[in-house]
Amino acid sequence: MTDDRTQGAREDRLLRMGEPPRTLGEAWRKLVWILPWLVFLSSPVHDLAAGAHQPAATAAGWAGLAAFTGIYLALVFRNMGRPFSEPVVACMVGVLGVLAVVLTLTLGGAWIGLFVYVSVVCGTTFPLRVAYAAIPATTVAMVLVGQVVGAEAMWTLVLLVLLVGFAMTGVRQLVRTTVELRQARATVAQLAANEERLRLARDLHDLLGHSLSLITLKSELAGRMLPGQPDKAAQQVADIEQVSRQALVDVREAVTGYRRPRLAAELAGARVALTAAGVSCELPAEPALDGVPEESESALAWALREAVTNVVRHSGARRCAVEVVRRQTLDGPLLELTVEDDGTGGSGSGPGNGLTGLVERLEKAGGMLEAGRLKRGFRLVARVPAAAGGNVGSRA
User: Fold this and answer.
1) pTM of this prediction?
2) Residue 47: CA atoms inside 13 Å, Cβ hemisphere, count?
3) Which of 187, 245, 347, 370 has its CA 20 to 30 A from that of 206?
4) pLDDT recorded at residue 14
5) What DSSP string describes 194-227?
């Protein structure tokens, strides 16, 4: 379960990396993620600050370094969501390469680290086939320039330039795969919802088509019988009432089946709700519900929904743990749901309408509810029979 939560958080981070920033805060976080990688610019900055060059060369160096850094940040930042067009990217990467060569040749080996950034943008912005050729080409260019200027750190950077460039291609593919996976999941969920709607429409058509046709026919007959044959018209009206009542029962039965919540679906929804609220959650895998009556499962699903809603809206909790276990009691097997958080449990002095309704729902299913404050937090325990005809009459 912990591995699933970690994997979900990793997918969320990767997905946000592959999307444009939605708020100013996200934009700053993306920028902060980029800035530490500017460490290789410390050598050029130190070289310029040391005053080892003529004033004109120093001024040109600062201007070239500013242009190089601006182009690099623009490429990497925009590539996280709204990339430039391919011709613009090619021109900007070309300018970065020219600046790296010119600045290193004119100002010395301290500037050899600029090729690291050229390799990074090749890996992050070029199509894969182009990147696989551009990264080694950047490395070769760095070696040639380094030999001309006698850069001492050149051979140390050769492996780094190659690894960083190809690592960025791997990150790109991972982000792209994650985004496509999320999109596929959303599509599957939408198709499933559409299928449910179509099935409900078919069932309602099958249930109501005959009944409504019969009601229409008998209404026409009753109209023709009035006022000459009131007794026969009254019989037709009675038949209409009977057919209508039966149709209403059929519709209620059909809709009740669709509205019944499922525990597995509520667990998945709880994970999404708690994560979105910034609450660290521990939830079980999909529980085994063999032999559990639908009414018991439905009541437990409602209990989970109400508990998670209270945690998200009222508790101010930072952690929430959910547990679903089977227990054997003197009254028979039962299914127990426990939701525990470290929040305040809300500001009310007594149970709210949600918990009161939940108690009634659980009692109808033969279950029971316990809820109360802990020393640090709040705990809700719901128990329902795990077998048909059971009743929770004693504690586990």
Assistant:
1) 0.48
2) 23
3) 187
4) 43
5) HHHHHHHHHHHHHHHHHHHHHHHHHHHHHHHHTT
